[in-house]
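TA notes. Do not distribute before section.
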Amino acid sequence: VPAALLGSALLRRPAALGAAAARCAPARDSHGPPRQGHGSSKAASLHWTGERAVSVLLLGLLPAAYLCPGPAVDYSLAAALTLHGHWGLGQVITDYVHGDVPIKVANAGLYLLSALTFAGLCHFNYQDVGICKAVAMLWSL
């Protein structure tokens, strides 16, 4: 909708919202340029590329798990699912957790959760039937 049709009064932020926004702590922007000490744009680009690569890998692993289940696919799924979940929850922390101490606590919890998830999936693959066989058993119910 063109700005001329809306009128300048509708495009201005209400004074109450402007004052409330000024009092709040500045939000962290995960999509903006990196700040001092937060890595380079090359590192961010490599991270983004890695996220896409893991997503594409998961798209290939899902049919592979059905067509040729085995230990290699089980452990690949354990690693890819854990990494995919770790990065996804990391973005939730980036978007919703604010303050230095809460961020550090949340990130420590995330690393602990990811390590326990990967260890649990590997234990399940080694000691039990494995991810592929377990999903096939669930589908056969």
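Switch to the second chain here.
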Amino acid sequence: MEVQWDSSLQSTTLSDSEIDFNKEAKRIADLDMPQAIVTKLINNVLCGDSIEEEAKLAVIRSTTQFISYLTSSANKIAKNKNHKNIQPDDVFRAIEECEFDEFLPKLKDELNAYVEIKRSAKAKQNEEENVTGGPPSSSIVTDLPSDSGIK
């Protein structure tokens, strides 16, 4: 049985049980990964080879679906642990449950590298504060003495 949509039957008002598919499609498209980021990733992987626009759109939609699925799985794992926030271990467990185990070593290495970069930046900032006796000069001053003349 084939169902066809007759545009002459469109209603301008929808009941609570009806769905406005045009609005729903816009919301789904709003969840897509930014095209510029995906294009940059694709170009890095392809090393100068080109990709058609339809293929790029397929990668964008696939990426969005993958992230949504993985996030949903990680969220279930976090909730089962009575956590309010998803932790990296929840994501790693979700990747295992989704049978993407081959990604885990690289992802864990990347997370460790990111954590180390953040730790080094924090240590450098703390070192600068200790040398100068306060935060870097680019910090915003919120407490001024009342006799400073600045209002």
